[in-house]
Amino acid sequence: MNNEPYISLGRLTKSYQEGSVTRAVLRDLSLDMDEGEMIVLLGRSGSGKSTLLNLISGIDKPDTGKVLIGGTNLVSLNEKQRTLFRRNNIGFVFQSFNLISTLTVHENVLLPLKLKNNADREAFRKATRFLEEVGLGDRGDSYPDRLSGGERQRVAIARALANEPLLILADEPTGNLDYKTGQLILKMLHTLVRKNNRTIIIATHDRDICQIADRVFNLQDGVLNEVKNHTEITGE
Amino acid sequence: MKRSKTNLLWRSSIRFLLQHPWHFALSILGVALGVSMVVSIDLSNSSAQKAFSLSTQAVTGEATHQVTGAADGLDESVYRQLRMAEKPLKSAPVVEGYGRLSVVNRTFRILGVDPIAEAPFRSFASQKAGINLSDFISGETTGLVSHDVASELGLAVEDTLMVSVSGHTFPLRLIGLINPDNDQTRRALENLLVVDIGTAQKLLNMPGKLSRIDLILPENTNERAIKNITTLLPEGADLSRSDSRSQAVSQMINAFEFNLQALSMLALLVGMFLIYNTMTFSVVQRRPLIGRLRGIGVTKREILRVVVQEAILIGVIGTAIGILAGFFLAQVLLKLVTQSINDLYFVVSVQELSIGIYPLIKAAVLGMGATLLAAYWPAREASNAEVSTVLNRSSSESKIKGRIGTLALAGIVVGGLGGGLLLIPNGRIGMGYVSLLMIIIGFSLTIPLLVTGLTGLIRPVLSTINGLIGKMSAQGIVTELSRTSVAIASLVVAVAATVGVGVMVDSFRTTVVSWLEIQLQADVYVQVPRAVTRKADGELDPTVVLRLKQTDGVAGFHTVRSVDVHTNFGIDQLVAVDNEVSSHNTYQMKESEPGFWNRFRNEAIVMVSEVYAYRHHVDLGDSVFIRTDRGRAGFQVAGIFYDYASDLGTITISRNTYDAYFDDPAVSGLALYATDGADVDELVKRLRSRSEGLQEVLIQSNRGLREASIAIFDRTFTVTIVLRMLAMLVAFVGVLSALMAIQLERKREHAVMRANGMTPGQLWSYVITQSGAMGLIAGILSLPLGIIMAYILVYVINMRSFGWTLQLMVSPALLMQAVLLAFLAALLAGIYPSYKMAKASPADALRNN
């Protein structure tokens, strides 16, 4: 049996130069995750959550440490290889949805599949299925600017899932939504991730999300601490 | 599979362009305007060249060689001698010149031939073509034109035409029509009047003379055989290849055409700024979109490919429209180019545009090349952006701000290298333009730094005038530097081009005006109407000369004779003057040997114009060899004078010396001095009435001639001024698109301002103030660059093209005009966005982000 973790972050450090001052964002950060696990990453604005997600997705590189996803160390890859890795293995859900405004809803979901060189018919079928799963099967021909915030985030979820990635990264997925819509989106994300057995990291400062997570971590001063008791945080 | 993936990205890209139709259209317009200028100049130049070469081919026919005489032609006895030679040669006599047909205001080439000898030479002028020999050589004034010309002018056989040559008008009976056997001949015969030798001699006042004798020599004719023919020729006559003369004439306009091409390339350069501008905006606007695509795994290469594909699309559409527009523009320019060639060099009549494949290929390559070159940098920047920073809007701004010092330094280096190129001695015109281009690029690179500095200076002023809004407007220019500096740079280059060309034309005009004042010392000038305005090669009737000299109120006179002669440099204009005594007042000498004027009358010396000395690398003490009626004679160059009448240069000789070498008593022009206190206008009237009925001559007062000369000068620069205006139009479109893009792109920022309580009026004022400030900055920055460009045009390009010494004349009015132009263009460009912004609902702008 293979005991290697599905995702392993080993002693990551990252700092930024701000004028003459060097600001450490992540300090010696390590984390192991299993396949199908749902992890919530808490932290205040500017705590480094987005930086950590950028390192995990290969958008950025750490100063030191390793990022192992499904046995591939992203740190050893060059920019192009990391882009291709991201294309094939990572799905994103952003706070600001980041849909491609010049593509229809259906084409937005289709794009990662096409980039991954899925067969046309197969890609079309998958995109349609996931749009139906998020309840937008009838909005495929609309452009993103015609949708409400909640609907846009549902398209983003469909896009992230349709790609069948090793890992989904969600950066403040409810940050731009009202409470009720946010809850609906979380519920949908939770259901679909579990149903499709996807691994997900959700970065947020919305503590309500903790209830659906397998594990919760708090990022503070560049250090990651696991929160064992959710009620400490949510007050429930 | 890969294709469908690319299709999706491409579809996204196309939709982006269609969602921003203004940007898309303006990018296309930028390419189209630049390409249309290049195409139109190329087509008009090549059409003029083609018309010239067709008409030359038509009159040269199958001749391989020709025998020509000295200044005033060849005695017809030479033809008889050649015909009676031991081994008869295939030869045909030709008398050639120009005249105007009264039915149409067009100059025709008069070709006098012997139809019996013509068959091997020119099929259309031979008996085979159906010429009725008895009518043709009847001794009457008869002639033939082509069928097309007859239909165009509504003529029929037996009609009588009035032909004007050197002020004399002759009735000519049309005895037949030539049917060209192909399109080429048809076009070649568009301006040809074929007459008998005797008729041509009568029309052109060449009794007993021939212009040349055409020969067909077998291909294997050796040097010795040619020498044998030469021995049959009298002193002064020469045997040469037929194509050498047309080549020499055609080369005359090389510099003229090259400069026009360079001007059109300048428009393309401004067009490139426009493309760069719009492509940059297009990329900057899409930074978040590109970030998202990169985030989900689209590679840099794929982004680069899509942006380049867009550029190709813009390039293809723009080039196609540019080529089409170029055809229309060429129709206008063709008239101007032909007019300039006719004023300055030789007679060419172009009735239609000649569309060759080469100008089209060149336009396509340049249009696509310029688009890709201009789009490459924005495309590369788009693809190279780091995904983590691309989502951050201010990253590109902080990048350029960090780079302005480096950019300025690079600009100084590039500009310095450009300046250094000018120091290379004996550089070519092309090198001058390369240097000019490098200086323009160098200056453009310093613009972000200069804009930052100038904005700092105008901020307090705007703050005083328009309070916080004024201050914000100024600050906005710096915070959006990556976009504003490109817009300003394109306006600077375009306005500087208009300043440069304007100063050059002004300098030229001022120099010519002051030169004319010195040159024109007499009170009245008499000339023969001529085909080429700047060439005084007609002949005044001796009776007219005598009558005019003896007119009441004329105190003195001098004459001028102008002829084309064969020299060791080719065919040159020789001017004989008999006012040796007063010449030292009229000729401004650049340099001369000691005691020049004392020697000028009697010694075999000449003075050459500055242009002539420059073109042929002739210096004082060198000799010019001229074919005269006494054989080839050497004349020492003892003086070099300033002259702006001809860009081909002239050799000036005293009439006394001319008469010793040429059997040509003719006079081309007469200058008359009025008696003290005489009314010159009255004298002119008197002179006109005395010449009436003898010969049509142009009699002009000193002032009249000066005004006419300036009018011709202005006319020859019309094409330059048209090109300058077109370059300005390209610039205007450039600044319009850039400013509109900047303002439209800041929709959200404006919405935030509106949301925070800025009234529509205040927003309007904000946008207009900012556009105006950018225009003002561009106007100010265009002045130093414009003056540098003018300096290079006047002292380097003009010198290398023509060899004229000009006085640099920078008129403050022209500079003010340039600043005003930039300011107004920018203001105008700000109107639409400010109107749109002020009207837009801030809620919509905020929601749609």
TrEMBL record, chain A:
InterPro entries: AAA+_ATPase, ABC_transporter-like_ATP-bd, ABC_transporter-like_CS, MacB-like_ATP-bd, P-loop_NTPase. SUPFAM superfamilies: P-loop containing nucleoside triphosphate hydrolases (SSF52540). It comes from the Bacteria. GO terms for molecular function: ATP binding; ATP hydrolysis activity; transmembrane transporter activity. Keywords: ATP-binding, Nucleotide-binding, Translocase, Transport. Belongs to the ABC transporter superfamily. Macrolide exporter (TC 3.A.1.122) family. This is ABC transporter ATP-binding protein. GO terms for cellular component: membrane protein complex. Residues 7-236 form the ABC transporter domain.
Automatic annotation (TrEMBL), chain B:
Residues 25-226, 485-689 form the MacB-like periplasmic core domain. InterPro entries: ABC3_permease_C (IPR003838), MacB_PCD (IPR025857), Macrolide_Exporter_MacB (IPR050250). Keywords: Cell membrane, Membrane, Transmembrane, Transmembrane helix. It is a multi-pass membrane protein. Residues 263-386, 725-842 form the ABC3 transporter permease C-terminal domain. GO terms for cellular component: plasma membrane. It is found in: Cell membrane. Pfam families: FtsX, MacB_PCD. GO terms for molecular function: transmembrane transporter activity. The chain crosses the membrane at residues 262-284, 311-337, 357-379, 400-424, 436-462, 483-505, 721-742, 763-794, 814-832. Its main location: membrane. This is ABC transporter permease. It comes from Membranihabitans marinus.
